[in-house]
Write a structure and sequence with these properties.
The complex is a heterodimer of chains A (275) and B (344).
Chain A lengths: L8 E12 L5 E8 L13 E6 L3 E6 L10 E6 L3 H6 L7 E8 L12 E7 L7 H9 L7 E7 L8 H7 L4 E6 L9 E2 L2 H8 L6 E6 L2 H14 L6 E4 L15 E2 L2 E2 H4 L2 E3 H4 L7
Helix pairs in contact in A: 4-5
Chain B lengths: L1 E5 L3 H7 L4 E8 L2 E6 L23 E9 L6 E4 L7 E6 L1 H15 L5 H7 L2 E6 L26 E5 L3 E6 L2 H9 L9 H16 L11 H7 L5 H5 L8 H4 L7 E9 L3 E9 L20 H20 L9 H5 L6 H10 L3
Parallel strand pairs in B: 2-6, 6-7, 7-8
Antiparallel strand pairs in B: 1-9, 2-3, 4-5, 4-11, 8-9, 10-11
Helix pairs in contact in B: 6-9
The chains are: A alpha/beta (275), B alpha/beta (344).
Chain lengths: 275, 344
Amino acid sequence: MSDNIYLPKLGRVAFIKDEVVGERAIKTFRVEAADGGDLFEHECGQCAMLSIFGRGESMISIASSPLIKEYKQFSIMKVGRVSSAFHELEVGDVIGIRGPYGNNFPIDDWRGKNLYFIGGGCGLAPIWPLITTAVAQRADFKDITVFYGGRTSRDIMYRAELEKLRESIDVHLSIDKAEEGWEGYCGFVPAAVMDKDPVPANSIAITCGPPIMIKFVIQNLNKLGFADEQIYTTIENKMKCGLGKCGRCNVGKDYVCVKGPVYSWAVLKNLPEEY
Amino acid sequence: MEKILEKKRIDDWIAALSQWEVHAPALEDGIWTYQPVKGAARLDHPNTRQSPKGLAFPQREIFFTFEQIKGEPPKLTQVLPQETRHAVFGVRPCDGRGVPRMDKVFTDHVDDTYYNTRRKNVAYVGLACNKPPSATCFCLSVGGSPVSTEGLDVQLTDLGDRYFVKAITEVGKELMTTAGSLLTDPGADDQKDVKQVHAAAVAYPQRKINDPDGAPEKLKANFNSPLWEEMARSCIGCGICTFLCPTCHCFDINDEVQSKAPLKGQRVRTWDNCQFPDFTMHSSGHNPRENTGARLRQRVNHKFQYFHENFGMHQCTGCGRCVSECPVGIDIVAVVNKVTENVG
């Protein structure tokens, strides 16, 4: 194996699914090692640098549980040059993949606790490995609750998987404005959380979504009595190398690609707001 | 190892270095740049427009090429740097001190194959500054000196008709050994002269950062200061400050396509610049450093706070290029002084 940190492995796209169609389109991809072996081991919360040769590289959260060895899952919203190229891929296409990068959620410290997951939009993808790992190891945790909201019912990703999770954990879905036939909460995610009164005792809350949502979720969690150390989030910044060298993803002295993307609010709130 | 070289014999020494590609400052169209030596080398430069950092970290380098015929997997071919040995003559102490700072970046956490392969093949033959070559020099403020040997393999000191030649590293000894009898043993007068020249160089007045040791803490305390916006108002975002800096290491990685079908192209690393708005802009359009104030703060804090917190040294080596070449007169010495004075 090459020790060249910039040389990607080849991954074969084995599965593609439209999660969300329209303006904020999200597609889910499952990527296997093109040579039939394993790509790499990863932990919940880590990212990988994906590339389409000729279009470029993008850092994307790994959205599958580390318990799944056969493939890595990525859910990608169509926004920029590389993500748009991803939306043109077909099953069988070969891409570049290097990683894993960044730190991870300290899931082992959370065994025996209640877990509250609070996601919005495509912010479900970075915490999805953690949710599915915790559900796979259900007996290790106390209550597990997922709050997840999209702008409209058409923006809800992993819909079928979320419905299936209801068999073993509490799932509360929300949309911003009322729609005919919608039975879940109507309103923003921070309010949806308050509606269910999560209990801070022996609990950890993990949130990911648009920055404005994260901000109000954390405010509300603090109001409910969650200490900053009990709140975790994951942040993103533009990245090129993934190795703390290209110089752009730093928040203060630390590069998000190395020391992040996972932060407790106790740590993050003391860092400059450059994310 | 300490030796004496008659000035007029420097070309003979360079000629003896047949195993190395030798670079030295050359004056072209009024600009000093490092060039491969053809014929005679001259070391009477003030400082070069650019530091020699490009020898280990070129402005542009190809990581690998890719090739793909439709329906087949892509074929990647690494383009690793050649193992050519380079010796660069005339490196000023500030640029010498840039070398270990670049090494920190590219060898911390994980090794950078491209940088390391080039870096291990470059030897730096420094030239002490008998007096600061530019009115914008401030090496003494950032832990350096006009006679610093940090980062160098050999140090030359100009003693008028001869150079005092001192080996700093094993590679330096190797370069000096290659010179054979061109280098002679120094006498007591030579030793006395070099001491005098060095003492005078250090005593020469320079521009001054008032509290370099307090800068990391004070910059941290001033992160939200309105001074940043104020001081950066004239910035046109050209990025010359970072492109000329001996320690700026930020880079971009892009794919270049030569042909679409069959797909042929290359992945390329180029220097990048924290003063450009799209350096940090997310694809959503959100930009964590959305104005020139935030970008000036990043450049200054990186040099005087973040790097210091990570590696225990200032990243700036006081060469003064960003001060002398800024088209709108933004002056890092004045900026650091102004911000750090802002705390009681």
